[in-house]
Amino acid sequence: MDKIINADKYIGRFAPSPTGPVHFGTLLAAVGSYLQAKKNNGDWIIRMEDVDITRKVDGSDLEILHTLEAFGFEWQGEVLYQSKQTECYRYALEQLIEQSLVFPCICSRKQLVESGSGIYPGTCRTRSLQEKSDHALRLLAEDITIEFDDLVMGRRSQNMASQCGDFVIKRRDGLFAYQLAVVVDDQLQDITEVVRGADLLDSTPRQIYLQQLLGYSTPGYCHLPLAVDAAGNKISKSEGAARVDIKNRESLLRHVLDFLGQKPPADLCDADISEIWKWATEHWDIDLVSAANKIPLHT
Ligand SMILES: [Zn+2]
Fold first, then answer.
1. pLDDT of 106-145, one tens digit each?
2. CA of 107 to the centre of ligand 1 (A)
3. Which CATH architecture has domain 3-83+191-202+217-288?
4. Is 103 helix (H, G, I), strand (E, B) or coil?
């Protein structure tokens, strides 16, 4: 497609990690990003965030895609796998190295824990990239405040030096870090707005910082409230959340819409999945998504 024609087109994405089946929290992010793209007459694409191949569960990528299909999601183009993008990440890393913003870090996990505040104290900043040792690569966090307006969570700001610190962009095991990978992919895929769960709100300033250093455009951001269980804990795969049962897809979709503040009418209770999608696409309003449980940038 012609790049110029594409320039104003909304492109949203859903980017699950293939680390297990779809649970309610994953479904929430899928539905929110999908309806926001539909409402903006945009494309919705899928990216498998498998940059951390150590966490990947074999077959879960296909299971996720099958579940999405069963729910009636339709996406554009091929699914992009981060594990196949290494050359692109390496190129971005080179750009950062050329700006003298990258240094090797040999600190052990124990040392980092003992340093206290959770913000990297800059221990290895003077080390040379020429050193041949087992190390991660960190990006120097400059004294720059990153501000952005989140469509749901409102205005956010974070000083990179004092509130974030130098962060890892390539891990000690040789894998590229999520923060770098996601920024490169959002740029390569021309993503205009990122709609995802609020667990990634805290990552956003780092991603915008990287975009600025790499000369990329910054998409819009929209972080959806997180689903919590009865005890108030976030529902996530790592905590053994139950997979969604596609036999209950209609009630699950209505439940998601309800959670996202869309107030699906009672007469949708007997509707089939396509009728629910039709209603949801026509009535989707991002302003209704509750930001009541706005979470602070540092929790
Ligand atoms: Zn270090």
1. 998 888 888 777 899 999 999 998 877 789 999 999 999 9
2. 4
3. 3-Layer(aba) Sandwich (3.40)
4. strand
